[in-house]
Amino acid sequence: MNKIMFTVMLSLTALLLSGQSPENLSSAIIKKGLDSLIIEAYDTTSATWTNRLKYDYSYDACGRTTQYAECSWDVAVQEWYYVKKEEYYYNPLSQLAMQKSLSWDIPAQVWQEAIKIEWSWGTNGKVSEKHYYHYNLSISQWKLVYKEEFIYDASAVLTERYSYFWDEINSIYNMAYMDEYSYDLNGNLVMVTFFEWNSATSFFDILAKSEFTWNVINKPLTYVFYWYDQSVMLFRKHQMLEYIYDLSLNVGDVYHYNWDQSTMHWLHFYHDILVYNNNYSFDQLLLPYPILNDHPVLFLHMLEESVRKMYVNGVWKDEMRSEYYYSDKSISGISVAEQAINIRVFPNPASDRISISWSGWSGMLWVSIYDLSGSKVYDQLLMPGEELDVSRWGRGLYLYQLRDDKTNIKTGKLILR
Length: 417
Hints:
Blueprint: H1 3-18, E1 29-43, E2 48-59, E3 65-74, E4 79-90, E5 96-105, E6 110-121, E7 127-136, E8 141-152, E9 158-167, E10 172-183, E11 189-198, E12 203-214, E13 220-229, E14 234-245, E15 251-260, E16 265-281, E17 285-286, E18 301-312, E19 315-331, H2 336-339, E20 341-346, E21 353-359, E22 365-371, E23 376-382, E24 386-389, E25 396-403, E26 408-416
Parallel strand pairs: 1-17
Antiparallel strand pairs: 1-2, 1-19, 2-3, 3-4, 4-5, 5-6, 6-7, 7-8, 8-9, 9-10, 10-11, 11-12, 12-13, 13-14, 14-15, 15-16, 16-18, 18-19, 20-21, 21-24, 22-23, 22-25, 25-26
């Protein structure tokens, strides 16, 4: 199990509960922002830690994550090289609207688009849908692949998630998976049950489940994953995480276990030891998306280091170390309208396509376009630099308006000929 899997499992509980986008901070303050995370592997031959992976994070003036880049260590030349990166775009309400993954093309030395996820939000402030796309290099277009739908109860608590694959030939979504969420009286997630759609029977088959236990102050104690044995119609234990807290209520130790069916016992696998700087509380930190809303459940102070040990023949041996690097970040909290500068609509006049770009803000803006009769011919959220196909619009004069949720940022004329 690698560091990425550990992070996913460590934060799963809060991620399923939150469904929230990063806060839009409203006042100018200084926070300790996580700039980079460096992961090292232990070299048993030299008995030293060696570089393996690095993650670099960037933020905008409101403290929202705009990008993270993943690098690998080149042992031969002793330097980091890019592998992939993710870019984040927000709607005018500061909710995540799009995340785009790009891979680094080493021969061409350029970033190549790979995966895109578009987020939709409900009036309850929770994510309602996600649409997944992959970039088809042969035709230079995004192709729809997959979508997720999120269902909530009257209290805006997640109860179900449905997943569908897109059938491009028939232009329909086909059911794929469903997850069901259960909670205790304190609102803590206690179980997620995973199902797979059976097209032959038109029913869902059980795949697996996760169970969570909590202590008296509503912090997670254990996470257990079970797979479902269809042959005997029983859940089989598979993996478990156990969380141990220090006196400051941070998770100080995480034990990973694998289930041994032959002995009917949990066997030690990994032990993660987490080290904190208690001089900085969680609300003084600026952390990247998506872990911004995940980690308050697990720690309350600045995480500086985590060391992973593997259990080998009765002995815990060093395997991996993660080091976290922070710097001061000024969060201005200025409005979208103040940040979105140098707005360009080009070419203008245009014939087939137009591009709308802006700088100074990483988020998305509402773009509305009207004909001279006052009819709205276009009204969508766009990210900077996105193109519009206007080839089928009538020739003549149009009026455009760019705005956030409250403020009209720019208006102008667009000529098609």
